[in-house]
Specification:
- This protein is about 55% helix and about 15% strand.
- It starts with 6 loop residues before the first helix and ends with a helix.
- It has 3 domains: about 100 residues, Butyryl-Coa Dehydrogenase, subunit A, domain 1; about 100 residues, Butyryl-CoA Dehydrogenase, subunit A, domain 2 (Beta Barrel); about 150 residues, Up-down Bundle (Butyryl-CoA Dehydrogenase, subunit A, domain 3).
- The strands form 2 sheets. Strands 2-3-7-5-4 form a 5-stranded mixed β-barrel. The protein has a two-stranded antiparallel ribbon with strand order 8-9.
- By secondary structure, it is of the alpha+beta class.
- The chain contains 12 helices and 9 strands.
């Protein structure tokens, strides 16, 4: 296998790095709060980067997300591509692709997914005379406050898991007692998470939905999404390590740079190696998906590294900044929050290992 980016992938990565570097600055992020960075999202979409993912593949998306993670840019790039653009492009009908892809490419549509990791689907689906309807509750859905479409895995009456798309409100409405009794099919409520992901609580009650693909699609979508978010974690860790290098090289103690101390060097080296493990396993899983090779175990492997190693890296980044690492307004603290959020979103790590072990056992039995 060859992880060398193609010319198109490298060009997209360079463009993303330039846009993220110009707009996702510490000053702008500090003033932004917890919502989506609308100006940055428009700039990315105007440059054609979400649309380019159809051409540069999952490897290309991982490269873009690395650049996002380096600066912790508050845009739903991973969610929109992993849960919207790619699933529709690969599994959608001709009508769905014609109707949904233009808006997803332009950024006027934002996608996310509602599911619970490590358990059976939390939504049920049934078919009525008017079409499919979903019922279920999801306590935390990332980027729900910006989403126009939500991908939901649901268990059918026959016991199979299928993917369904629902239309969501871009601006959440509080869930009140009156709302509970009103019978609204889609209800949302703002929820704050560790990282500023504009998340929300989603409640569905006979919400109209349309199927996306056949049985088995969700497993592939989830694997691709795990790989994409692991790439985002690789970027978050790279940004944290870069700040450590800058800080320990310039900060002196007893007349010597902090980086001259063996303990600091070893901790930083461990963080670098952990970051490389996340990055390389994400590349491998993405490459295998792009080559249409079996990749489920590889997606679980990179997700585990993103959880386990990612947590170590962002903790080390904060600790190696000493006292200023405890300052919630310091840029390194943002990497800490994102790293912990990605750990929680992809994990928990032990559940990923259990899932990986079960999958490897099944493959060996076959």
């Amino acid at each position: 296998m060859d992880f060398t980016p193609t010319a198109e992938q490298q060009a997209a990565r360079d463009l993303a790095a330039e846009i993220f570097g110009d707009l996702s600055t510490h000053e702008r992020l500090s003033a932004l709060g917890t919502g989506i960075d609308g100006e940055l999202w428009k700039a990315l979409c105007a440059a054609g980067l979400p649309a380019a993912v159809e051409e540069i593949g999952l490897v290309g998306l991982v490269l873009l997300l690395e650049e996002q993670g380096r600066v912790t840019a508050q845009v739903p790039l991973a969610a929109t591509c992993a849960y919207g653009l790619l699933p529709v492009a690969v599994h959608g009908t001709a009508e769905q692709r014609a109707r949904l892809l233009p808006a997803l490419r332009e950024g006027t549509a934002v996608a996310t997914a509602a599911y619970r990791t490590g358990s059976r689907p939390a939504a049920s689906v049934r078919r009525t005379a008017a079409g499919w309807v979903l019922t279920g509750t999801f306590p935390v859905v990332p980027w729900l406050r910006a989403a126009t479409h939500v991908l939901v895995p649901a268990r059918t009456e026959e016991g199979r898991t299928r993917c369904f798309l629902i239309e969501a409100q871009a601006v959440p409405t509080p869930i009140t007692p009156a709302a509970h009794t009103s019978g609204a099919p889609v209800r949302t409520e703002a929820v704050e998470t560790t990282a500023p992901w504009a998340a929300g609580r989603l409640t569905l009650h006979d919400a109209p939905a349309e199927p996306l693909g056949d049985d088995g699609v969700w497993a592939e979508v989830l694997g691709r999404a795990r790989t994409a978010f692991a790439g985002l974690q690789a970027g978050v860790c790279q940004g944290s390590v870069a700040r450590v290098v800058q800080h320990t090289s310039t900060r002196e103690q007893f007349g010597r740079p902090l980086s001259a101390q063996q303990g600091v060097l070893l901790r930083a080296a461990d963080a670098h190696m952990d970051t490389e493990a996340i990055r390389v396993t994400a590349y491998e899983a993405a490459w295998r998906y792009d080559q249409r090779l079996p990749a489920a175990t590889h997606a679980l492997t990179t997700a585990w590294w993103a959880c386990e190693a990612g947590r170590r890296v962002v903790h080390a980044g904060q600790h190696l900044h000493g006292g200023i690492g405890a300052d919630v307004e310091h840029p390194v603290h943002r990497h800490f929050l994102w790293g912990r959020q990605l750990d929680a979103y992809l994990g928990p790590a032990p559940a990923l290992l259990a899932e990986l072990g079960a999958l490897l056992t099944e493959e060996k039995a076959v």
